[in-house]
Amino acid sequence: MNGEEYASQLFAHEDPILAEVRRDIIDRGMPAIFVPSHIGHLLSLLVKLNNSRNALEIGALGGYSGIWLARSLPADGHLTSLELNAEYAKVAQHNLERAGLGSKVHYEIGPALQSLEKLQQAGHRYDFFLIDADKENYPAYLAFAIALAHPGAIIAGDNALLHGRVIDFDDLSPRAVAMRQFNEQMATHPRLTAMMITMGDGLAIARVNY
Q: Name one Pfam family in it (predicted).
C-alpha cells in the first residue's frame, strides 16, 4: 500500500449511491473517465470550505462528479453542468435524481464554449468551477471561468498531469500542449492563486482573488 492508497481508504469512502452510479456508467459502456473517489471527496471538501452556492461543471459524463458537487452545496445551491453528448446528460440527470439531487442541477447540452458564451452574455456568475472535459479547450475554459467567477471563487481542473504527458516535453500533441498551457496559466495568471495536487492524474486548483 502506498500513501495515496492509504489516504483514499481512510478519507475517501464511496457510499452505495456513488458506487451504483459508477457501476451504471461502466455498465452502459460510457468512458470510465469520471474522477476517482478521493478527488471527488476533495472537490466536495473544497465546495464546503468555500461556502459555494452556485457551481459550474464543464463535462458531466454520467453525473458521478456532479453528485459530489451537488451534495456539498447548501439547500438553495445550484449546479449548472455542461455536456456535449445529450445521451450522457440524460444519464447524468437520471443519476442525480437517483441521488435525490435532481432539483439542484441544470444541464446545458452542446459544445461547452457555446454554452459558456451564453452564460456570460446572460450575466451568470459562479463561485465554484470544475473543468473536466476535452483537454484541447482547457485554456479557453479557464478564461471563461475567470470571467464568470465571483471574487473568491474556486477553479479546479482535473487531469492536470495528463498521465504524465505534461512533463514529457517531447509530446507536442494538441492535448499535451493545451494542458501545459492551462497549468501555466493557472500558475501565473494575475487574478489567481493556485496549486496542483498530484494525487491521481493531478488536480490544479486556483482561487480567483478579484
A: Methyltransf_3
